[in-house]
Write a structure and sequence with these properties.
7-stranded mixed β-sheet
Length: about 240
């Protein structure tokens, strides 16, 4: 039996899609809500998110992801998402950009199984894949093949710059979604970028819709070959950031 979402969620999502200037089909809007429903239902048995209220989850997960969509270039053909968790922002991006290949990288086996089941349920498994591994351990054949790497509330910016660089084509970008990073974190990321062949970060801050939470999107572009061999061993990006 098809799950029917409360009208307020449907209306809330439609309003924010309109505000963001994102045109969607009925099927895409339904898929966004079904993804949210799967997250909340699975969360009753296994911890995926601390946010349990449907309206809050729609705003803080789905709408938050959609607000970053305009940072993904229109001609992007391949996107990798590091630390995908519940599938935000990767699954909304995959739903709203139907010509784009999406690779979700999730090291937690329980979460990876959820992601695999979700893309099958949504009917997008033909172009949205899940790798159950650390970012440093992906198959070498896929490195250097992505236009965009995304990460949402995962690790420090310095670690993300290092982890993203091997995935990116020349000219590709890292789009990191954070809360409100401090100057120290931003400076450390720029230091790491020097070693990783990445440009200094460009940062855009905004207030999340219908709330007061501040969000920052940080973009780093791969401009040259790294000066060191990447990826380094598992965990070094987080434990021993480049300086």
């Amino acid at each position: 039996m098809k799950h029917m979402d409360p009208p307020d969620l449907d209306t809330m999502l439609a309003e924010h899609l309109l505000q963001a200037g994102v045109l969607v089909s009925h099927g895409q809007k339904d898929a966004l809500l079904r993804h949210l429903h799967l997250v909340l239902e699975t969360n009753k048995e296994t911890n995926l998110t601390a946010i349990r209220n449907p309206e809050d989850a729609l705003r803080l997960h789905t709408i938050d992801s959609i607000q970053a969509l305009d940072s993904i270039p229109a001609l992007t053909t391949a996107l990798a998402d590091i630390g995908s968790g519940q599938g935000y922002p990767a699954i909304p991006f995959g739903i709203l950009r139907p010509k784009m290949k999406v690779t979700m990288i999730e090291s937690n086996e329980r979460k990876a199984r959820f992601l695999q089941a979700t893309v099958r349920s949504l009917g997008i498994g033909c172009r949205v894949e899940v790798l159950n591994c650390r970012a440093e351990c992906v198959p070498p054949a896929i490195l250097g093949t992505y236009d965009v790497v995304t990460a949402r509330a995962v690790a420090s910016l310095a670690a993300l710059v290092e982890l993203a660089s091997p995935f990116l084509k020349q000219g590709g970008i890292l789009v990191a979604m954070k809360g409100s990073p401090e100057a120290k974190e931003l400076g450390a990321a720029n230091n790491a970028a020097v070693h990783c062949g990445m440009s200094p970060g460009l940062h855009r801050s905004y207030i999340l819709a219908n709330g007061s939470e501040e969000r920052t999107i940080s973009i780093y572009r791969k401009v040259e070959r790294p000066s060191i061999t990447l990826p380094r061993r598992v965990g070094l990006a987080q434990k021993r950031p480049l300086k």
